[in-house]
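re: ur question from yesterday

yeah so i grabbed the chain u mentioned. its 400 aa long if i counted rite. heres the sequnce exactly as i have it in my notes:
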Amino acid sequence: MTSHLLPTFARVDLAFDHGEGVWLHATNGERYLDFTSGVAVNALGHAHPQVVAAITEQAGKAIHVSNLFRVPEQERLADRLCAASFADYVFFANSGAEAMECAIKTARKFHAVNGQPERYRIITFEGAFHGRTLATLAAGGQKKYLEGFGPVVEGFDQVPFGDLEAVKKAIVPETAAILIEPIQGEGGVRVPENHFLRSLRALCDRHGLLLIFDEVQTGMGRTGELFAYQRIGVEPDVMALAKALGGGFPVGACLATENAGKGMTAGTHGSTFGGNPLAMAAGNATFDVMLADGFLERVRHTGILFRQRLAEIKDRYPSVIAEVRGEGLLLGLRCVIPNGQLVDALRDEHLLAVGAGDNVVRLYPPLIVSEDEVGEAMAMLDRACARLARERTPKKEAVG
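ran it thru and got these structure tokens back, copy pasting raw so excuse formatting
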């Protein structure tokens, strides 16, 4: 059958009818353990009762009213995000890319209102991924995503990931900010050293720059803290959130300190759908679950167990897996074989995973995953690796 969808995705020939917890049920009647979570979106799994109830109730009241009026649930979620973080202000959007666009504009506007409009350049890092808009693609700097879309948006200076000296050399009078993911997700689950991030904070303070964290993928409990920066002990000036913020419903947010956000006054930025009542109901319900006693502690505990089990499998199959990476339940396997082969082999075992840069396979289970479900996933991974290892072992010729 011919599809009328623009063919921008290389989709797997698999569709799902419904989900429950960490499981997805395909239209062919088979069940899959979902360790992709919609690429770190479904942090509370599928059909979480509190999120479903909140969305259902709000849909019967008002789905959209626009930002021409106050949205009480928007104000409530902003209050809660600020109380739980470094921030004083929040702007709600619909996606991570939109949240990042707001962060970029916030940094540029900050310097403009300080009388330095020439300070608009932002230092970013090789391997980064910040979204699919023209500006966020330029920030990411990956040629495969930029090719064919005309002149690249000006104002981004890329340096090698983790190279402090390169960052220092890239700071010029026009520099406005430094933008980094606390852990690179799409780039291959690459974790910078804590002292590197602390050094970035010190550089920003010394040169009057803003430090922007892209926590679209790491935020909302994925690393075992509500936000990854809390694990590191380095506070940014601006932070982008999305993915898990709505428990599966599209929600993005740009958080800023009062100082960093002082240029974003009435009329400087906007969104038609951002912060709509339905999205805010999902966001507040997700927050209710994640702030419950013991939730993040369980994520940390499960993450440690999961990483230990992955390390055991890496040791058993060195011809398939070279390295285990990540924090909390944001974990990756750097492969010896092409990572797509492992993704396919896992799907054959009914375990869903997703590829990333640097030949990595990402494993992003819902944060509600149990130890038993981690055990099921490890059995699937073991079988997949065993089969791939056998295929790589040359068969001995018979001696006759």
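noticed a couple things. The first strand starts at residue 16 and ends at 20. also DSSP finds 13 helices and 15 strands in the chain.
anyway ttyl
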